[in-house]
Structures are given as structure tokens and as C-alpha cells.
From TrEMBL:
Signal peptide location: 1-24
Membrane topology field: Single-pass type I membrane protein
Gene name of this polypeptide: LOC109717397
Name the record gives this protein: Dolichyl-diphosphooligosaccharide--protein glycosyltransferase 48 kDa subunit
KW Signal (keyword) present: yes
Lineage, uppermost ranks: Eukaryota, Viridiplantae, Streptophyta, Embryophyta, Tracheophyta
InterPro entries referenced in this protein's UniProt entry, alphabetically: DDOST_48_kDa_subunit (IPR005013), OST48_MD (IPR055459), OST48_N (IPR055457)
Length: 436
């Protein structure tokens, strides 16, 4: 009885955590676990953390090597997002390891990972599994002798001032980031064949990755704009991952620094870091670009209920409602590139859906003159947006024997030929029998 009582109390204690997890109806009502290698980061990076808390996120700070760490309890995840600000931690504490973090992402949850030149093998391993490869030189930094911040003393020029941002309002917001973004850290490469990973902040063509404390004995492995400073990944299950080669990118010091890019006479009183990390975190945590589809329906033209099957050449209507999460509520999603396929082995019909500017997308078409098992398929994938994959199966039958028309218009020439043959045979018979 004592054991049952203890188990009951433990379940009661964890229920509030489970109930506050991610839900499709409220994507941003979530708990976030923040792992750091030094609790001093709570104050040195407070601007970033305060931004998250002001937007309704519940942050739980813990040391990355805490022996009591756990992402799950009784088979349920306790958190819906993970911020890993512990680049130098050699081993994660408790039940956490590289596989546990990757399973967390595989379950559809989000991750922000920040590294630097001291990144451990576990941090590099997680990044690699997410499609990002850090420079193999463990002490390499991104160096740029033309696009550096002039406040940096002459020398290695490892304080980069970059404005090579991805052009996407859904990822970075519709307000342009005017000031350069300060970056000091290690660079990484992205496989161009991997469509799930995107470079958000890139280095300039003159940049390269190397150890600033040693002379170059061979050409750098990473050079130019191929170096990614910050990358994002959206998995096929719509989980989102942000990978940065710099932990300082999120710091108060970089956010408040005066910036003047080398070769430019413009001095900015404040860098673009605070705006950048705020806007990119909104995307990672699904405050932007999160779509949902509801009320998928199809019917014969003029009818209200969905049929169990269609007949060839029936006229039908298809409709679906699509909404986007604004951070506080669901708003109608407006686009002109949503398409539906009427599919069996290959698309027999491909139609672009029209919308009423209120989230309702619809179209109508004629069922093809082919019978079998078809699917209504919507596969919507656009940069920065969660992907929509909708499928609804429906059989299509041919005409029954009593449903065909008695006389087919296209067959009139054959009808005429038959009757003219009969008339000709009758006349020939009369003439043959009675003509002398």
C-alpha cells in the first residue's frame, strides 16, 4: 500500500507537466529545458531568456551534467523544447545522451544548440545527426580580414560582423534586420543535397575557418560563403532545430555592442543580434510558419454529404481549411499555390485550390473515366512553413449496366450504318424477288 501511495503521488506531481506540453491547438504553450555548463549564463544571456519568458515560455534551467537529468517520466516527455547552451560539456548528466536528444527531436520536439571552438564530441555528434558538420579542427574559429567588426583590435579578426542573412519573412520576420550580426565561434558546413537544412547566417566570401593561434600549413577545409554560421533544420515530422557555432551570439554583450563593419562608415549603436535571435527563436518554437489543416471534405456537386464512392465522370467538390499560428491565435493562411491531386499510382487530376481569404480552399473537377481506388492528396511544402500532408481514400466505380444511355451521341454514325444496311438489304430482297 505504501508503494502504491508513493506511485500515486508521483503521478499526481507529473500530471501538470504532461498537461502543459505541446498541443496542436496551442503550439507555443510549452515548457523548455535549458541546459548550461555554467549557471552564470542566466545573467550573461538574460536578454534572450527574458524574451522567451515574456512570450509565455516556462524555462527550467539545469546544469548539463546534473545526474538527475531526464526528459521523460513514466513514458511521457516533460518538456517540449530543449535549449543546449553547454558546448564544453563532455557528457550529459542523468539519462541524457546523444541518442536521447535525437529521440527527443524524432518525437516532434524542438532544439536550439549553441557551440563554440571548445565543442565536445557529444555536441558535435548531435549537430552531425541534424545535418551539420563543424570544422574538424577542435580549436578552429571563423576568421575574416574584410568583414570583421572594427572595434576588434588588429590581428586574427575572429569577431565577424555578418549581414548575409536568408531572405525569408516567415523565418526572420517581416522587419528587416539593419545592423550586422556579431559572431565569434566555429563554422560549419551544410550538405547542399539535404533539403531539410538551411543556412540562415553565412560568412562572407573572404572568410575561412582555421586556428588563429597557429600558422596555416595547408588550405582551410571551410572557406567563403560555404561557411554557415547559423543553420536551421526542419525535420519531416516538423520538429525544428537551430544550430549556432557561437554561444556568444545569444549573449547580452554582443546584443548591446556598438557595431561598425570593416570598410563601412556606418556605425550602429546596437548590433542586430537581439533582433536576430528573437526572430529566429520565434520560428524554432513554432510562433511563425506553423500550419494546420482542418475540415477536409469532398462531395458531389450540389450535395452536402460525403459519398462512400464516386462514379466515373461525376462532378465533385473538394475543400480544406488552412490556418497559421500567429503566436497567440490561429489566423487564416492565404496563398495561391496550394494544390490537390486526385491520385492513383500517378496524379490523374492536379488542381490549384482557390481561397476565400478566410482560410477556406476549394476546387471542383470531373472524376476521370478510370475506375479504381483513388486518393485526394495535398502535399504542401514551402520554405519556413510546416509541411502539410493530407490523404483521403475513395473508390471510383464504372457505370452499372442500367446506367448507360440508351443512345450514345458519339455512336450515331454506327447506328446510321446499321439501319442503312438493313434498309438496303430489304430493298435488294424486294428487287431480287419481284423483278423479272
Amino acid at each position: 500500500m505504501a508503494r502504491l501511495g508513493a506511485l500515486f503521488l508521483a503521478v499526481i506531481a507529473v500530471l501538470p507537466l504532461i498537461c502543459s506540453c505541446f498541443s496542436a491547438d496551442s503550439p507555443t504553450d510549452r515548457r523548455v529545458l535549458v541546459l548550461v555548463d555554467d549557471l552564470a549564463l542566466r545573467s550573461s544571456h538574460s536578454l534572450f531568456f527574458n524574451s522567451l519568458q515574456s512570450r509565455g515560455f516556462d524555462l527550467d534551467f539545469k546544469l548539463a551534467d546534473d545526474p538527475k537529468l531526464s526528459l521523460q517520466r513514466y513514458g511521457q516527455y516533460l518538456y517540449d523544447a530543449l535549449i543546449l547552451f553547454a558546448p564544453s560539456t563532455q557528457r550529459l548528466g542523468g539519462s541524457l545522451d546523444q541518442n536521447a536528444v535525437l529521440e527527443f527531436v524524432d518525437s516532434g520536439r524542438d532544439l536550439i544548440l549553441a557551440a563554440d571552438s571548445s565543442a565536445s564530441d557529444v555536441i558535435r555528434g548531435i549537430a552531425t545527426e541534424c545535418g551539420v558538420d563543424f570544422d574538424e579542427d577542435l580549436e578552429a574559429l571563423v576568421i575574416d580580414h574584410t568583414s570583421y567588426a572594427v572595434s576588434e583590435t588588429e590581428g586574427d579578426h575572429t569577431l565577424i560582423a555578418s549581414d548575409a542573412l536568408i531572405h525569408s519573412d516567415v523565418i526572420l520576420g517581416d522587419k528587416k534586420i539593419e545592423a550586422p550580426i556579431l559572431f565569434r565561434g566555429t563554422g560549419h558546413s551544410v550538405n547542399p543535397a539535404n533539403s531539410l537544412v538551411l543556412k540562415v547566417l553565412s560568412a562572407s566570401p573572404s572568410a575561412y575557418s582555421a586556428n588563429p593561434k597557429t600558422k596555416l600549413s595547408s588550405p582551410p577545409s571551410l572557406t567563403g560563403s560555404a561557411i554557415s554560421l547559423v543553420s536551421i533544420m526542419q525535420a519531416r515530422n516538423n520538429a525544428r532545430v537551430l544550430i549556432s557555432g557561437s554561444l556568444d551570439l545569444f549573449s547580452n554583450r554582443f546584443s548591446k555592442s556598438v557595431v561598425q563593419k570593416a570598410g563601412s562608415k556606418i556605425k550602429y549603436e546596437k548590433s542586430g543580434n537581439e533582433q536576430f535571435v528573437t526572430e529566429i527563436s520565434k520560428w524554432v518554437f513554432h510562433e511563425r510558419g506553423h500550419l494546420k489543416a482542418v475540415n477536409v471534405s469532398h462531395r458531389k456537386v450540389g450535395e452536402m454529404t460525403e459519398p462512400a464512392m464516386y462514379r466515373i465522370n461525376d462532378d465533385l467538390e473538394y475543400s480544406v481549411e488552412i490556418y497559421e499560428w500567429s503566436g497567440t491565435s490561429w489566423e487564416p493562411y492565404v496563398a495561391d499555390d496550394v494544390q490537390v491531386q486526385f491520385y492513383m499510382m500517378s496524379p490523374y487530376v492536379l488542381k490549384t485550390l482557390s481561397n476565400n481569404q478566410k482560410g477556406l480552399y476549394s476546387t471542383s473537377f470531373k472524376v476521370p473515366d478510370v475506375y479504381g481506388v483513388f486518393q485526394f492528396k495535398v502535399e504542401y511544402q514551402r520554405l519556413g512553413y510546416t509541411s502539410l500532408r493530407l490523404a483521403k481514400q475513395i473508390p471510383v466505380r464504372p457505370f452499372r449496366h442500367n446506367e448507360y444511355e440508351r443512345f450514345i451521341t458519339a455512336a450515331y454514325p454506327y447506328y446510321g450504318a446499321s439501319f442503312s444496311t438493313m434498309a438496303g438489304f430489304f430493298i435488294f430482297s424486294i428487287v431480287y424477288l419481284y423483278h423479272k
